[in-house]
Amino acid sequence: MVSKTEEAQLNRLENQVDNGGGGAWEYLCLVRKLKVRRSEKVLKYGMSILNDLSKRSSLGSEEWTLYEQVAVAAMDCQCLDVAKDLSKLLRKEFPESKRIGRLEAMLLEAKGSWEEAEKAYSSFLEDSPLDQVIHKRRVAMAKAQGNISGAIEWLNKYLEIFMADNDAWRELAEIYVSLQMYKQAAFCYEELILSQPTVPLYHLAYADILYTIGGLENIQTAKKYYASVINLTGGKNIRALFGISLCTSAIGLLAKGRNKEDKENPELQSLVATALEKDYKQRAPDKLSLLTTALRSLKVSS
Amino acid sequence: MGFSLGFLVGVFGVLVLSHAAYSTVQYRGLLKIMEEEFSGPPITVVAELLLGLVFSLWAALTVPGTFLSIHPHSEENMIVALPANLDFMVFNHRGKVFPVEMDLKLKH
């Protein structure tokens, strides 16, 4: 999870490193800690540390972590020669390690030799059938080959064993969304909300999916989840604010002609509009006119 | 040097508390000599106790560190991005078509 202060810190460090202000190692550590994907920069600055003997030796045993991080980044940037050199060095240092074996199998993946990579992963799984990362790599490999249904199948099998793996649930949800299977994706996000109820982004994604599915009941639920996002973020999530106003207008359209027993709270719409206007005035005053026309069109249609 | 104001106040508070204890013992000794019943500590000792309590409380709240926010929407707690799912990283992406023009070589 990347919090707002951590994001600010990352941006600051990135700026500093980009402008040659030093602090490359701190930046790489933060990238690793926050698990963000900045492969190009990791490769560039990681290599500059690794090629500098004095800097490299000052890291001590952390050096090998950096080798691994840079190797994965190199694969992501398709610099396969560099990745190969790095994994060879690691193999020389740790001849028995399974972790390096995994890295080599990933290198095979990056090269596109799927059969060999698959063979390597299967042999790892025979040794240790509960290695989560290798199970996940197989899913990723199926996805990389375009075999989405295979990936879903693997992922479902994986989730039957490791039900508490939130990342896997999120991956499954994203795959389902990409296939427009919203009901299934909604189920995944329900799991995520159950296990981590304080993460507003799961609520937001769930509300988005419900709104996309459509139908009066779903949109009403979506509105409630957008409201919970606002509650959790203190009203700082613009997407949730827009979601509320879209839901309100959609509910107005759908509920037209029906008996209005469950009358929606009319204050919510105007409150959301005020909040949005205030935020736009503060951060993008030149786009305020766009916002007011958009909000007006929503109000007209309701 | 090296000690913060809070720490010094804490030490002072503990000293005040121990002085209050010492005074009470002295007072009871005095009462025994005068052969009177002990009904309660003298007012100065009570004042000292209260003062020591306040000092120690203040030190205990400031020395270990600052308070962290528990609000879900505070800057430290608000989650603005989920980590990229690196375990499911796929290398077969559009970056493959545009390889990075970097002259990188491992020099060992």
From TrEMBL, chain A:
Transmembrane segments: none
Membrane topology: Peripheral membrane protein
EMC2 TPR-like domain segment(s): 100-209
Pfam families: TPR_EMC2 (PF22890)
Entry protein name: ER membrane protein complex subunit 2
InterPro entries: EMC2-like (IPR039856), TPR-like_helical_dom_sf (IPR011990), TPR_EMC2 (IPR055217)
Its biological purpose: Part of the endoplasmic reticulum membrane protein complex (EMC) that enables the energy-independent insertion into endoplasmic reticulum membranes of newly synthesized membrane proteins.
Keywords: Endoplasmic reticulum, Membrane, Repeat, TPR repeat
Principal subcellular localization: endoplasmic reticulum
Species for this entry: Rubus argutus
UniProtKB/TrEMBL annotation, chain B:
Any one Gene Ontology cellular component term annotated for this protein: plasma membrane
InterPro entries (UniProt xref): MMgT
Membrane topology category: Multi-pass membrane protein
Pfam families from the UniProt entry: MMgT (PF10270)
Key word Lipid biosynthesis present: no
Major location (coarse): endoplasmic reticulum
A GO molecular function held by the record: inorganic cation transmembrane transporter activity
Quaternary structure, from the entry: Component of the ER membrane protein complex (EMC).
PANTHER family per record: ER MEMBRANE PROTEIN COMPLEX SUBUNIT 5, PTHR21181
Family statement: Belongs to the membrane magnesium transporter (TC 1.A.67) family.
The protein, known as: Membrane magnesium transporter
